[in-house]
Amino acid sequence: MRVVAAAAIAMLTALPASADTRGFIGFHWTFDSFGSTPEAALGIARVRLDSDGDARGAKASVHLPLSDGLTFGKAKLVGVRGKSDRMIEAGLGWSAETGSVLGTAGLWAPYVDAGLDFDLSGVQGYGGINSLKKWD
Description:
Blueprint: H1 2-14, E1 20-32, E2 35-49, E3 54-65, E4 74-83, E5 86-95, E6 100-109, E7 112-119, E8 122-130
């Protein structure tokens, strides 16, 4: 977990000063072969937008399952790349639920995101809403 936190700080601070930094909150539904679970997401994103609309950056987030009260579920660090209004994201994280490193990949558009988290125990999908608007 400390490695993920250190990597998140390094990625978020490595972007140039012209990058835009935003905090965000979100609400997701996660689903796998065992069912679905609501979760809250809290995080920070830092994105640099080029004059032609290309965007790249990083996003760090903590995910809190809500089914049995507010508990820690996952921490993720992803790189993002695309346009100001749509990006792909891919990265790594830590799952407290499985006690292991996970891979994650997804899509982001203003106020919505969806993707997959995967580790040795299987694949978990997610989709939801968040407070991140289009990058200016």
